[in-house]
Structure formats: structure tokens, C-alpha cells
Design a protein that fits this description.
The protein has an eight-stranded mixed sheet with strand order 1-2-4-3-5-6-7-8, with helices on both faces. Helix content is about 35%, strand content about 20%. It starts with a helix and ends with a helix. Helix 3 crosses helix 10 and helix 4 packs across helix 6. Strand 5, helix 6 and strand 6 form a beta-alpha-beta unit. The protein has a single domain, classed as 3-Layer(aba) Sandwich (Rossmann fold). It is α/β, with parallel strands linked by helices and about 300 residues long.
Length: about 300
């Protein structure tokens, strides 16, 4: 399909900004450009929003809790990990996305501000995300949530982290997850895939140069990173049921769909789809790309079924 006209308008707006030189830009420089939430009027309304501090043995992880109107008591919980290549992204950049997902799923959402690279390289982000899910289970009464109805979700690098947490929960005997919602997840660093050849030039918001930069900042000189390159996980059996949503004009499309196919092949229940006409990041662009709401509703509906 051609690009969605709403996406075309967004890309035209993005094209007005100077291009990013990934050969020279620093993490601080890229954050100054991207870690600024766009002013879009009133955000989607929810019943309650609360900033939290997840106190762990050796560190504190900031988080934000959302409770939608009409949520059950105790409510099911989706623990959400924001995208941004493990380098970018904050609670504020994904505030509206979390609100929309809470409304669509009817579940509470806990957004986690995990440690970012390159200051904290792999596996710091994954460990923070897993610890946050364990903390939520252990503090269910404090949050007013049902510890037996937990799910993970995330977009891009956050989708990677959600997938990693699902693997960690299985392998470490951690919280039993009802679902994993993976939105255009990073699963590997294989640049030979067709979606990179078709969409990796950067004209569709995310390109190969950016992904190479993100991977380099997250891994540094580490070659073994099983909780980062989750697409190479030898055994995917026994993981939580999954929704995998990718975008037609996204270099990450093929690795996301390949991961969904491997999950299904391992006996995991999977709802996987390529969003036609969409680009990387569209899930969080729903206020500028109203057609993205159908995909938020799809993810929310699958979460509702998983929690039922």
C-alpha cells in the first residue's frame, strides 16, 4: 500500500527539521532533539495519574501509574516500556501513549523510566524493566492491582524490553504474565533483511544509520547480548501470549514479523499484523495520525481478552 496520507503529513513536518548526522551526534544532542513532548492539547483523560519511585536494593527507578475510568478493583496491570533506542525516551514522551493504552485496555498502566544507554549499557535497561514487573507484583495492594493479571508492553526498544522481560520471567520463575504487547519491536541487528533495504534510508523516520547508532550505544563492545537480540533466543516455548504489531514502511518490520512467526512456531498464541501505510513510531503519533487509534484499540482488545 502507499503511505497513509496522515503519515505523509507527519513526514513532511519532520522534513522541515535539519537532518541528524549519526556519525557525529552525541546521546545528549539527540535527546535534546527528541526528548521533548509535542504540545497537542489536552491528553487522553484517565481517572488517576501518579508518579512513583520504585525502590530497589541498589537503585531507584522512576515510574508513572495510570488508572483509567471504570477500571476493575483490583485492576489488571500493563507494565509499559517506552521506545527510543535504549538511549532516548522518558515518562513524558510516552505519557499520551500510556493514557491511550490504559483507556483501550481498561487496565492500569505502569510506565517505567529504566536506565538508558550509553551511561548504563546492556543489560541495565532489561534488568530495570524486569525488576519493575516484580516490584509491581509485590506491591499489588499498594497499587490496587491484581498480581495475577499482569502483562508487559512496549514500542520499538521498549518492545524489545517487553519481549526480554517475558523471557526473563519464564527463565527466572518470575511473575506469570498474561500477555506481551510488542509494538514494532527491535529483535535483532540483521541489516540484510528486505525491510532494511526498502525502508532503511531514513526517509520514513527511522533508518539504518539510526539503528546502528542505537545498537552501538546500548551494547558498546559487548558481542554476547541474548536479552537484547531476543530474535536469536533458542527456545521461545512457554512464553506469554503475544500481540506483535509492525509497520509497513519500517526497517524493523521483518524482524518483528520473524519473531512473531518463531513465537507461533514454539506454540505461543500470537496475533501478528503489519499496519499498512504506517511508519515506525506511528503508535505514539495517534493524535497526528488518527488511523493509528485502530491499532491501539487492537492491542487494548487483546489485553482485555488476556485479562478476562
Amino acid at each position: 500500500m502507499p503511505l497513509n496520507p496522515q503519515v505523509e503529513a507527519v513526514l513532511a513536518m519532520f522534513a522541515m527539521a535539519p537532518p541528524v548526522d549519526y556519525a557525529t551526534i552525541s546521546a545528549e544532542g539527540l535527546r535534546a532533539l527528541f526528548d521533548v513532548p509535542m504540545a497537542m492539547g489536552e491528553p487522553p483523560a484517565v481517572a488517576r495519574v501518579e508518579d512513583l519511585a520504585i525502590a530497589l536494593a541498589d537503585r531507584t527507578v522512576p515510574a508513572r501509574f495510570y488508572l483509567p475510568e471504570g477500571a476493575a478493583s483490583p485492576a489488571p496491570l500493563v507494565v509499559y516500556f517506552h521506545g527510543g533506542g535504549w538511549v532516548l525516551g522518558t515518562l513524558d514522551t510516552h505519557d499520551r501513549t500510556c493514557r491511550a493504552l490504559a483507556r483501550a485496555s481498561g487496565a492500569a498502566v505502569l510506565s517505567v523510566d529504566y536506565r538508558r544507554a550509553p551511561e548504563h549499557r546492556y543489560p541495565a535497561a532489561a534488568e530495570d524493566c524486569y525488576a519493575a514487573v516484580c516490584w509491581a507484583r509485590d506491591h499489588a495492594a499498594r497499587l490496587g492491582i491484581d498480581p495475577a493479571r499482569l502483562a508487559v508492553a512496549g514500542d520499538s526498544a521498549g518492545g524489545n524490553l517487553a519481549g526480554a522481560v517475558a523471557i526473563m520471567a519464564r527463565d527466572r520463575g518470575g511473575p506469570a504474565l498474561r500477555h506481551q504487547l510488542l509494538i514494532y519491536p527491535v529483535t535483532d541487528d540483521d541489516y540484510s533483511l528486505a525491510s532494511y533495504a526498502q525502508n532503511g534510508g531514513g526517509e520514513y523516520y527511522l533508518g539504518r544509520a539510526a539503528m546502528e547508532w542505537f545498537w552501538g550505544h546500548y551494547l558498546g563492545d559487548q558481542s554476547e547480548a541474548p536479552l537484547a537480540k531476543i530474535g536469536r533466543t533458542p527456545d521461545l516455548a512457554g512464553l506469554a501470549p503475544a500481540t506483535v504489531i509492525t509497520a509497513e514502511f519500517d526497517p524493523l518490520r521483518d524482524e518483528g514479523m520473524a519473531y512473531a512467526a518463531r513465537l507461533a512456531g514454539a506454540g505461543v498464541t500470537v496475533d501478528a499484523a503489519v499496519a499498512p501505510g504506517m511508519i515506525h513510531g506511528f503508535f505514539s503519533m495517534f493524535e497526528m495520525v488518527p488511523d493509528a487509534m485502530a491499532w491501539i484499540e487492537r492491542g487494548g482488545s487483546n489485553l482485555k481478552r488476556a485479562f478476562a
